[in-house]
Amino acid sequence: MVKSADLDPSVWVDRYGDYLFRYAMLRLRDRPAAEDMVQETFLAALKDRGAFSGNSSEATWLVGILKHKIADHYRRQSREAPLEGGDLGEHPDAGHFDGAGHWTAGPAEWGGNPADLYRQGEFLEQFRMCLSGLSPKHANAFTLREIEGLETAEICKVLGVSETNLWVILHRARALLRRCLEIRWFGTTAGKGS
Amino acid sequence: MLSCKDVTKLVSESMDHTLPLGKRIGVRLHLIICKFCARYERQLLLIRETVRRLAATVEAPGEPSGGTLSVEARERIRESIKNP
Q1: Given an 8 Å threshold on Cβ–Cβ distance, is A26 in contact with B13?
Q2: Which of A20, A31, A78, A112 is deepest in the core (most CB within 10 A)?
Q3: Does the beta-carbon distance from A107 to B43 stay under 8 Å?
């Protein structure tokens, strides 16, 4: 078991740098921001080295610090650009319903077996591209919900939005991802009639 | 009666909290008869599953997906640890 006295910061970058970077990159979708976050994490760890208990692995400890940094980043982003009602713009599915709210062009059949899709690196790359295409507000809310698995009440606190607003944001994020994947990966046109 | 537009919204909401019973039943009944909305739900669930797989892939040791630190960043971070 590693104790705080045994920590060796000189090997941190080689041992954990890329791992922490990938972790941050998935959540921030911005290379310079992710790299800064890794640096901040190591510096905070260095300063706080005495607090390392050895109850968790070095990697887990570092990721814990990184998680806090990422949450701070989300808080900062939503403080700097709070969500306005009009900010939401038109819903991505809006043009696909008639006046009565029925599909005029329904979702296309994606086909294939979902389990096979995950094994395709290319599919995950396309997914990543689609996620990067979301606005920070939508992407941050989606990430906290689906990657971190936080309950909506906690996400509301981080992002400073009401629960009702959050449901709207999450639906938009999912709808945008769905459309993006439909176009990028499945390359299909929307199904006709019902 | 719930419209398809209502149902797509509620399908997403149901992934974030438990819908009131009346709405839950309305959505389920609609999904039985509407293939587009049923497909929409399947695809949103597929997206949820995909992002979880993606996170698991990124976090799996020794299976790099999602890139590495740039050479400059690596050097800069190494220096900053040496001389904090």
Answers
A1: no
A2: A20
A3: yes
ipTM of the prediction: 0.90
User: What does the alpha-carbon distance between residue B8 and residue A94 come to, in Å, rounded to a whole number?
Assistant: 11
Q: Are A95 and A103 in contact (CB under 8 A)?
A: no
Whether A70 contacts A37, CB under 8 Å: yes
| Range of lowest pLDDT (A90-94, A96-100, B10-14, B35-39) | A90-94
Q: Is residue B79 within 8 angstroms of chain A, CB to CB?
A: no
Distance from CA of B49 to the nearest CA of A (A): 9
**Size of chain A in residues:** 194
Query: Structural domain of residue B34, as residue ranges?
Result: 4-82
Q: A43, B51: Cβ pair inside 8 Å?
A: no
Name the minimum distance, in Å, from the CA of B68 to any CA of chain A.
5
B18 contact A CB<8A: no
**pLDDT value, residue B15:** 97
Q: Which amino acid is at A157?
A: K
pLDDT at A61: 93
**Cβ(B65)–Cβ(A22) below 8 Å:** yes
For the packed helices A121-133 and A163-181, what is the interaxial angle rounded to 10 degrees?
130
CB B11, CB A174: distance < 8 Å: no
Mean pLDDT of B31-35: 97
Can you tell me the distance from the alpha carbon of B65 to that of A22, in angstroms, rounded to the nearest whole number? 8
The model's pTM: 0.87
Q: What is the pLDDT of residue A89?
A: 66
Please measure the distance between the N-terminal and C-terminal CA atoms of chain B and give it in whole angstroms.
64
**Among residues A80, A95, A110, which one ends one of the domains?**
A80
How large is the average pLDDT for residues A60-68? 93
**Mean pLDDT, to the nearest integer, of A156-166?**
92
Identify the CATH number of the domain in which residue A25 sits: 1.10.1740.10
- CATH number of domain containing A172: 1.10.10.10
